[in-house]
């Protein structure tokens, strides 16, 4: 009987973890920063597979003279079927970034990626 509150708390935390969206933030954009890029990335599910997508900033073939101050990845699935975002390189303090988006097994994903920064005057 004395362990009942701990068991209830554990079950509740698993429920909240599985039913909530997974949002990711790197850095801390200030109110004076501009939004450099906004992308909506959707990948459909594949049976018994994990789907992935690499997202680059700036897009291939483009040059960026802005310094990244923050990256926000917002999961649009709120039913616990969302994916995972991993910053592989670059990001805040750099001019480039590479993000890996990854789904759960047998599910797809739907993310909004926003990149913030400021202009370097060299």
- Gap between N and C termini: 67 Å
Estimate what percentage of residues fall within beta strands.
35-45%
What is the number of E strands? 7
Number of helices: 1
Structure commentary:
Residues 1-21 form the signal peptide. Pfam families: MBF2. Keywords: Signal. InterPro entries: MBF2 (IPR031734). Residues 7-19 have low confidence and may be disordered. A hairpin with a 6-residue loop joins strand 5 and strand 6. The chain has one helix at residues 4-19; strands at residues 24-27, 34-43, 52-57, 66-75, 84-90, 97-102, 109-119. A 4-stranded antiparallel beta sheet has the order 1-4-7-2, with no helix packed on it. The protein is elongated and about 50 Å long. Helix content is 13%, strand content 44%. It is built from 1 helix and 7 strands. It is mainly beta and 122 residues long. The protein has one domain (21-119).
Notable characteristics:
122 residues; mainly beta; 4-stranded antiparallel β-sheet; 3-stranded antiparallel β-sheet; 1 helix; 13% helix; 44% strand
Helix-strand blueprint:
Blueprint lengths: L3 H16 L4 E4 L6 E10 L8 E6 L8 E10 L8 E7 L6 E6 L6 E11 L3
Antiparallel strand pairs: 1-4, 2-7, 3-6, 4-7, 5-6
TL;DR of this structure?
This protein is mainly beta and 122 residues long. 13% of the residues lie in helices and 44% in strands.
């Amino acid at each position: 009987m004395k362990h009942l509150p701990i068991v209830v708390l554990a079950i509740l935390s698993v429920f909240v973890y599985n039913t909530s969206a997974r949002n990711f933030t790197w850095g801390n954009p200030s109110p004076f920063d501009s939004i450099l890029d906004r992308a909506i990335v959707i990948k459909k599910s594949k049976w018994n597979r994990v789907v992935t997508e690499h997202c680059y900033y700036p897009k291939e073939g483009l040059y960026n003279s802005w310094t990244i101050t923050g990256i926000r990845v917002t999961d649009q699935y709120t039913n616990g079927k969302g994916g995972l975002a991993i910053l592989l390189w670059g990001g805040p303090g750099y001019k480039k970034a590479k993000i890996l988006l990854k789904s759960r097994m047998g599910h797809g994903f739907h993310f909004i990626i926003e990149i913030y920064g400021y202009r370097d005057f060299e």
